[in-house]
Amino acid sequence: MNCKRLLHFLLIPGLYLGSCRHPEIDGGATKKTFVLSDTMLKTIRIDTASFRPVQMELHFSGRVAGKKTIARKSDIVVDVASASLPKAREGYEAEVSTSALPEKVFYGKVDGVFISRDTTTGRLSIRLDSPESKLQPEMFTQVVLHWGDGNNMIAVPGTAIIADHNRNFVLVFKDKYNIQVREVETYTTSGEITYISKGLDAGENVISGHQQQIYDALSDN
């Protein structure tokens, strides 16, 4: 980024650059003179990276099957079509939602996976935590399965990740005078959480909201 582009950001209210100079590279982080105003500090969101078990997800769309296939009143069977169906396993945690009941999420566990010969269609049998009669046959559903993959990694909100030219970055926040652009390697994203395999340590703070202007000002990408 040249000086002309940096000077453009001097006109953005609440965002200040102390000077225009070439970045210094220190441990994979890009450093530039940068001061974040108190106004901008109140606008951004800051989260702390944590070390936690990796949680994986599978998403399916389907519909509730007829009552005759249900082994117990609180069970449901969902007809699904997905190439990911062979990855589903008994015991996975399940969340079931339907547009007919937008405010309700049903929780349970997979107690059966039935795959057809083409391996892309079949049924999931889900035992709900609490008996429910609101899920009726033919209702269209969204099913999300959760399970741990056995690894522990650094986790941050997915919104903290900035994708740029097939590379991923975060803004590491130490104080309003010290913000670094840090390249990271991501492992997977599950729900709102992204797991990082390299480039960030537990306990470091990252900016995870309203950070694009700051990144544009600091980055040479």
Keywords:
conserved putative lor/sdh protein from methanococcus maripaludis s2 fold; six-stranded antiparallel beta barrel; 2 domains; disordered N terminus; single chain; 54% strand; elongated; 221 residues; two-stranded antiparallel ribbon; mainly beta; efflux transmembrane transporter activity; Elongation Factor Tu (Ef-tu), domain 3
In short:
With 221 residues, the protein is mainly β.
Question: What does this protein look like?
Answer:
- By secondary structure, this protein is mainly beta.
- The chain has two domains: 3-53 and 151-218, Beta Barrel (conserved putative lor/sdh protein from methanococcus maripaludis s2 fold), CATH 2.40.420.20; 54-149, Beta Barrel (Elongation Factor Tu (Ef-tu), domain 3).
- It has three helices and 16 strands.
- A six-stranded antiparallel beta barrel has the order 6-7-10-9-8-11. A two-stranded antiparallel sheet has the order 1-4.
- Strand 8 (93-98) and strand 9 form a beta hairpin.
- The longest helix is centred in the C-terminal third of the chain and has 7 residues, at 212-218.
- It starts with a helix and ends with a helix.
- Mean pLDDT is 82; it is low at 1-26.
